[in-house]
Write a structure and sequence with these properties.
Length: 499
């Protein structure tokens, strides 16, 4: 069990006699520490990045190689590929606690201080020098790169107020106010969206990470920092918003490419893990497997669609947000209908358009059609794919024949599930086919209604039957001519007619 801070040595003399002796940590760098702890975890067969799915055979081995090689590295990938999450989990490879000279802004190693203040303190107090302790999570510093970041933010600046209060010369090292990089000393420093940093800031980075010196207001300061530097970037940013300057790129030991889930199964696991579905509610929520599959397939279809900008990518946040929104729409409907169970339907995925369109960067063709139309086309394609998986070889001719003989059905989102099941039962053979989804006749009406609607939506996706939508206007407004489904904006509470 790890010791608490109160149990740990409090002076330099006492840590010399402890397990934190000079032989153990005096010359060990952060990269050595990460390597040693990583080797122990590998020997024990531990999961290095819990919660990260689909990278076990691709990204994780490359990160392990970079850490074993003591490399600074960059994760290069499109948005929503868990880059930042993986970087933050690197703290699990740090020691639970490490000593530093108490009061030091840059957490100096008590055996190898690099700042003037700590060197002076050691000369004055020797073994009586007070020691404080740094926990693993406190040894991680993260900065989102933006064009307005300055050298003062990253490295530091002369502090005239500090000089005036201490009576020091303005050029004295003791007057320096340290930036984020020195304050991350003896830890991990992560920069997200590296290409957004101005070129001169990148120069300051590679100078201090390689040579250990920097000039602050023309005053040279020697700071041999002990750091693991980790960067993230989107490949598109190399040309769209900025670039990584060649000398800095050359000093980054490993460039590691991330990727989106390679399979629907991996995507489903990630979405189930991240989506907020276990929510406090007065009613029970059940999400059918085919609804999860449709929403996940939607992301995969979007990544392949020519109307979507592939350089921008389709974030894994899309299926997460869409699933949460679909569940919320089902929850709202169930509460309004006084039902005990909320079951998302395909119509709830269409109702989740606001959580989909904002995550799609469209090409020119997509811009011409409009985000809502593109998103609806993607949902229809996803429904068709999932329907084919569940109903391949299932004879649905009887259902199609019912429509071919002139049958039509108008469904209102606001009706309760029992009424909807009664309406759907009028279609010859429809309710018998829900068994192909593994449902029994004893399932709640909300479950059966959602399954039957999925079958109709699947037939519509394959153009076996037709469908039109009517907006829920009042009696007087219905007399006006409604625009086509592709022209009008999405609206809650529509009626859906299958023909």
């Amino acid at each position: 069990m790890a010791k608490t801070n109160r149990e740990l040595p409090a002076t330099l003399g006492s840590i010399r006699k402890s397990e934190f002796s000079e032989e153990r940590i005096g010359t060990r760098s952060v990269k050595d520490e990460l390597r040693a702890n990583l080797l122990c975890k590998l020997q024990r067969g531990e999961n290095l990045f819990p919660g990260i799915v689909g990278f076990e055979d691709t990204v994780v081995p490359q990160i392990v190689n970079a850490l074993l090689s003591r490399h600074n590295f960059i994760l290069l990938g499109l948005r929503g590929q868990a880059k930042t999450r993986m970087v933050r989990q690197l703290t699990s490879l740090l020691d639970p606690a490490v000593p530093y000279i108490a009061g030091c802004e840059i957490h100096d190693n008590p055996y190898r201080p690099i700042c003037r203040r700590c060197r002076n303190l050691l000369e004055e107090q020797g073994d009586a020098t007070p020691i404080a302790w740094l926990e693993a999570n406190d040894r991680y510093v993260e900065k989102l790169a933006t064009p307005d970041v300055t050298i003062a933010d990253m490295i530091g600046d002369i502090d005239p107020i500090k000089a005036a209060r201490s009576g020091q010369n303005i050029s004295d090292e003791l007057t320096v106010h340290y930036g984020l990089l020195p304050r991350a000393n003896r830890g991990i420093f992560a920069i997200n969206e590296l290409p957004d940093l101005a070129g001169k800031i990148q120069v300051g980075l590679f100078n201090i990470m390689q040579e250990g010196d920097v000039q602050i207001k023309g005053y040279p300061v020697r700071l041999p920092l002990d750091l693991l530097l980790v960067f993230t970037a989107n490949p598109e940013d190399y040309t769209a918003r900025g670039k990584i300057i060649t000398p800095l790129k050359d000093r980054i030991g490993s460039e590691i490419r991330t990727h989106y889930p390679a399979s629907i199964e991996h995507g489903l696991e990630i979405t189930s893990q991240e989506a907020w579905l276990k929510r406090p509610s007065p009613i029970e929520t059940r999400v059918p497997a085919y609804i999860r599959e449709i929403i996940e397939t939607l992301a995969f279809v979007a990544r392949e669609d020519k109307k979507i900008d592939k350089r921008s990518g389709v974030s894994q946040r899309l299926p997460i947000s869409a699933l949460e929104n679909a569940v919320s729409n089902a929850e709202r409907r169930a509460l309004a209908s006084k039902e005990p169970v909320a079951v998302p339907r395909v119509l709830d995925i269409y109702a989740a358009l606001p959580s989909i369109t904002g995550k799609l960067e469209l090409e020119y063709e997509g811009e011409l059609k409009g985000g809502d139309v593109v998103a609806r086309d993607l949902i229809r394609a996803a429904v068709g794919k999932v329907y084919s998986q569940h109903f391949e070889g299932v004879n649905v001719a009887q259902i199609i024949q019912w429509f071919d003989l002139g049958g039509s059905l108008k469904l209102d989102e606001h009706v309760d599930s029992a009424t909807m099941v009664k309406q759907l039962s009028s279609i010859q053979g429809l309710m018998d086919k829900v068994g192909a989804l593994g449902l029994s006749a004893n399932e709640p009406d909300a479950v059966r209604a959602a399954a039957a609607e999925f079958i109709l939506e699947g037939l519509y996706a394959h153009r076996r039957i037709s469908r039109s939508e009517e907006r829920g206007f009042g009696a007087e407004e219905k007399k006006r001519e409604a625009p086509s489904s592709e022209e009008r904006p999405p609206r809650q509470g529509y009626r859906r007619q299958y023909n």
